[in-house]
Amino acid sequence: MGKELDLVGLCKYVWSKKRFLAIVTVCGIVVGIIIAVGLPKEYTSKAKLLPLQQKGEKDRNASMASMIGLSFATSSLDNLSVGLYSEILKSSSFLIGLADMKVKPSDLPEMTLYDYLVKNQRRAWWTKVLDFSSWFSSSEKDSVSKAIEWDVLYLTPQQQNYINQLNRRIVAWEDKTSGLLNIEVLMQDPVVSATVVNVLIDKLRESLFLIKKRKLESDLHYMEKMYDEAKHSYNVLEQQKDMLNERQLEMEASMSLCNMIARQYELLQVEVDDERPMFSVIDSARVPIDFSNPNRQMIVFVFAFLSLFGSIAWVILRRLFESE
Q: What's the predicted TM-score (pTM) here?
């Protein structure tokens, strides 16, 4: 009963300090508002892609292809996992390929994406105050842009900064229900955000086509080699058929193998010449109207909650220490 009375008394004591609690909470709200307003706005542009899946004839020939050591079902990259699409978008070589693309921010002249991310990003005012080095050095924004030489093995700090920023700002994820690939790009300028999404789609289409073509050409070369070997075996057996009639069955099997390889070769050649896109755009990118970051309401709420919780904890701890 004494503990219950102590708890009630502690609650009454905390309530008696409501003026102090209110002042601290209001201060926390003010700090939250200052931080929320001071953070630069960021805009998200989105697009949805549908990876195309083409089976049919390829599946019917898969078992025959496996007999000769060629995984024909996977030689075409039409059925790539959506995870590979995301890996391509995040790869350093892919991001470096975007460095020279032109963007036109709303309040700045046209520039490369590299210059925009490295030299023209708005920062919160307190980071500028705390960055003492910027007080004594010239602004990077005013520096003359020069041609950039990229070496993936030896990236400069600015080049690594560009890759890290772009990697963080590109999000690709698969909707398990619909099978769609969602691409989102977060930028401080809404026009730049939409522009980068559209270029990403074009570059991704080119990258996937090159991967597919190289894989198919490799399989085609392997198929040619196997056909030459099978044809040579058949010719040898044909030359010996007069002397060895019992090899007739071997000749028929060899001819069947040649015909099957020739069929697979024809199908692969069609695939190599096929220039159809490996995905279709279901929802194209648009210039966002409202900013997505920062979530100002959430920031203010968190600071208000932490201020109230912290002030209550301070009052309780102080009361407990005084009672001892």
A: 0.71
